[in-house]
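Quick question, first post here. What does this chain look like in 3D?
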Amino acid sequence: MGVLKEIFLTVFNMSVTAGVAVLLVIGVRFLIRKAPKSMAYLLWAVVGFRLICPYSLPSSMSIFNLELFQKHAVTDEKVAWNFVGTEHSAAEKQSGKLSVDSEKSGGIPAAESGTAAEPEPSEPVRAGRQISEDNRLDGMDIWEILSIVWLAGVIGLGMYELAAYNRLKRQVVQAVKSGGNVYECDTIDVPFVIGMFRPRIYLPFRVAEKERGYILLHEQYHIKRKDYLVKAGALALLILHWFNPLVWIAYHLMSEDMEMSCDEKVIKKLGQTMKCSYSNSLLSFAEPRQRMRGSHLAFGESSVKTRIKNVLGLKKPGKVAVCAAVAVCIFVAVLISVNPRQKNILRYDGRDLADPDAGFEVSYSVDSKINSYLLYREVYEAGELRDYKIVSSGGFQDSGGEIERRGTIQVGRSFKNEDTGMKGQLQWSVNGKEEVDRFDFGQYGFWSVADTYLVGGEVEKKEFKPEEDFVVAAWHLGRTGDTTQAFPCSDFDQRTRSKVVWNANPGEALYRLVVSEMDVWKLREKYEAAPYIREIYASKNSYVGDASADGKLLELLNVGSLGEYTMELQTSEEPYVLTVNFKEEPRDQTVLNWKMKQKAPMLLALIENAGEIHWTYPVAGGDGKETKYRWKMDCAEAEQKLGIDGLKKYTKTLDSLETLQDICARYQDQYEDIQISGDKYVAPDGRKYKYAKYLYGMLPNASFASSYHVLTNDEELTFDDVAWSMLSSTMEDKKDFYWIHERSASE
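> Answer (accepted):
Ran it through. Tokens below.
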């Protein structure tokens, strides 16, 4: 369903864009009505381009640069109208079991490892009716319903036209060849051309010789100009865009211009004295109105009255008039064939300063539309957002602020190692207005840093757009003994955190700058919550069966950083389950399970009807056979581990979701206290052990894997040793170990 919706939205966007082109061509067509009709005929090619291709080159000459169109969402390569709602995939409620491969992503933009694609249901959708506040019917939003209606219309109209074409072919099956590609038939009333690869001219019997000459000249010129292919292509576009009345008008006017331009060529060859005689022939073969649409080319087709008036009024146009008409047509063709080039509203030119502690300096200038700026800091640990802070903000002078629209930004930084860890300081000064951000790396256990900045070595002159935040400084953080890798700031501009740069270091502190048309207080209010949290909040969905939305959540929660996976959905019965199947055995099961215990509560909260989150991964046994370990978490377990009540309620507001994200990011399994004495672990019962181990395995007849956290003196102790020792009362060779019991967050 998601694929059909995306196709329809693409067609709809093209149709709206082409509608603007149709209106402009109609206006120009009126202005150049005295010029040869071939010019107007050629202009319709641009409309056809807009109807079939969603992409075009950006240019400052585009008509879509007008303020009227700038209110809508546009990109340089593709025009997308913001009332269409292409940004967010709709939820789909399905029954059955779905499996989606993270390597074959199609339902979500940017297919990377760890993202999921839109699946096909393996079982029928359960019957029933449901309407929610999201305007969904049986789990479908309005655009999904419209996409089904659109497809039904395409199929219905296509079948009707195909049937009409076959009916016409059968009508001339007894036609007699009279020479070349000309055939005569007594079952037709009007001459026409039909055929895609070998076009034929069909004439009624007993056509007068004089009229026969006019008809053949007219139809042969159609064939020479390949109008039969143009007409078929135009009909296909009409079927594709059947819902747009402007496309129907364009089809009719294009056919009219095609015929009139052909009439003009015939009169030019016959001479002006033949206009009356030719007009009489047109009138005598006027095609009935019900047969005007189709892929065939009929001599008496399309607005005979208009064509006769055009023929009778034909005069040789002056050279100046023709040149002016050509210039207008070229100009208009460019206007509507290219996309808008978004106006760059910030110029940013950075350079390093000689003193390393002084950092770097930026020359900037902002457009008159821009009213404010904001600098904020994000801290990520192992790919998870741990801290967020607005560092600086300000308004520009003519919008009530104190910052000039042109000037310099100076950024300094300093780092200092202390007993508790490394501390950093960033000084941010805009035309003398200084802000200082102090950051304690030690609270996250970071002891090393490598820093990069958006300056001359990386970008000589960079231009930005409204509401486009970008990284101006990146501090790459490491722990004791880590080798910290430095990456360019621009590598972090995209928030797809499954990328290598987001997981190469234990932590990243990113300073992002944004400029806006809002006033500074509205901008601060918008950024009160971290953009990452806002994006997650906007991506919550109602149904486990919405594979596209589920996949987006998995990407936002950085599940792909744990390894490649497929996604499996179970919606045939409650509890509804989302399963993440990792393809390879993890290097460290403890780390993967810990990270999934952080992410599973977020998924349970963000997917309204999700009852359980499962994850699996293969483990190779000593005999070479592979066993799949399956783990699960439900809402009750998540609440117990996190020490909260009402997990689902945490997605009601941005503030509560931010609180939940922070709780999950800080989550660690809680165990009873273990003391350390020298090189020994001391159990609560006083026994001492050399090793502390996490052991994983499957108990007999169990559906899910289990884990034991134990103290032992046996370095070779296995999960089976512990399990059999605990389950068996008769086992003679019981292992000596202490099982460390897990505690809930409230204990």
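Residues 60 and 341 are 5 Å apart (CA to CA).
Residues 2-31 form the longest helix (30 residues).
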